[in-house]
Amino acid sequence: MSLGVEVADLSVRYGDVTALDGLSFTLAPGKIYGLLGRNGSGKSTLLSVLAAFRRPAAGRVLVDGQDPFENPSVMSRICLIREGGDLYSSARVRDVVGFAACVREGFDKAYADRLLDVFQIPRRRRVQALSRGQRSALGSVLGLASRAPLTILDEAYLGMDAPSRYTFYDALLEDYAEHPRTIILSTHLIEEVARLLEEVVIIDRGRLVLAGDTEDVRARGVTVTGRAAEVDAFTAGLTVLNSQTLGATKSATVFGPLDDERRDRARTYELDLGPVALQDLFVHLTRESVR
Amino acid sequence: MSPILRSMWHNYRYTFLIYWIIMGLFIVAAQIMVSNTTDQDAVYAGLTNFAPPKYFLSVMGVLFVIVNLPVYVAHGVSRRRYMTGTAVFAALIGATYALISMIAITVNLGFAGRLDGALISRVGFAHLLTDYAYMGAGWLIGVTYYRYGPWYATFLLPFTTSPAWLTDGVFNSLWTTSPFTVQNLALRLPYALAVLAALACIAGAVAAGYALARTVPLKPRRA
User: Fold this and answer.
1) Are residues A209 and A289 in contact, defined by beta-carbon separation less than 8 angstroms?
2) CB-based contact (8 Å) between A43 and chain B?
3) How far apart are CA A58 and CA B197, in angstroms?
4) Given CB atoms, is A95 within the 8 Å cutoff of chain B?
5) CB within 8 Å: B10 and A148
6) pLDDT tens-digit profile of B153-168?
7) How confident is the model at residue B178 (pLDDT cuts 50, 70, 90)?
8) Of A143, A166, A157, whose CA–CA distance to A188 is shortest?
9) CB-CB neighbors (< 8 A) of B12 in chain A
10) How do beta strands A5-14 and A58-63 pair?
């Protein structure tokens, strides 16, 4: 069971600050989405509205066709894990897991116990005594074991070290294959999670910049690699996002689609054309948009 | 038992146990000390004016919002469902505290040879309503601090504490009233009127607490 999301003209304000400004997009059920945005772009606010942590100032959010705010049947099927964790800080790890198993329908306690072993989180230790990485891992364990049809991880794994993060990514993919659901990952570690994402949503200053299939998004740019002189000649007049030179070889990331004539020229120059790195595209789009 | 009742009991069972161990030791020690040094007899009623449970329960009311509400909502429980479950839990612990206090008073007055069943039952019910009013006030204090922050919530304290001091006022059980005698068991208002006034205070606290918590946004978390 997976949940779809529909956001229409959504606005949230904190006093004079507009966190979300007329945001609209739709997420189909049963996919892994990446929510990307710079600091202060409104990602966490958007996710808190989706999870019924707060009510929007204007606009509409529908999860599975219903307003999630104070809707018990929808709220019980959404799990949002935030970086700080919404946990009893003085409780022991085993009690935190027991609490989740008690109040959350569908929580898989046996799976949570296995993940605690995988991430080597001591069950008897109090949450406040855990390291930042262990706290992040505990949040991620709760998120995965919730088996919530809409599972949202808001920078939840940021505190983990690299080996733990890759263990988490593998666990997420494995569990997603066995228990398909809608998963939203909000992160700054774009290249790390790019392989997981089926679709991406990029927001900036509370507005939608781009939403779509990850491969389609990456197809909006091209990486051109070859001899430096040929690359320079080929990219003249195009929007170059990034370039690197190693000896006589140069690699340039170009924004915008290439027409057939350009592709023919690339073959003539013996240039390799490849997909653009999602992070390069993200940097370009959020640096250029309204700043 | 509902998941909320079960989890709340699991969360607070040791807190309650520790409270009653400390209170039990305090009452016994105070009884021994005072009865050996003065001519006072009903020590628990006289010394404490039945106050410790209600103050403790008002703190529980604060914790129910500031500590528990965000965690439950983050675990997919609607605010309304949490409040309903917590209201039942609060009703049960309030009744339990009133019952334990009643037993303490009965034993205390019994030892002093001043047992009066009618008085004890009237005071017991007043005790129960006062406990509820203090928990309601605690909830209001907690929800205003959580929702509006320390500045506004501090200015709102006369309002948020009003269920407690109004109920104390109608039952004449304020801590300022003659603390060393059992005379303050006597009620100023006619009993039925005092009960009605206390019920109105509790109802007001519940209504205001519900309205304030029903739409309260969860605060952002930082690692």
Assistant:
1) yes
2) no
3) 41
4) yes
5) no
6) 999 999 999 999 888 8
7) very low
8) A157
9) none
10) antiparallel
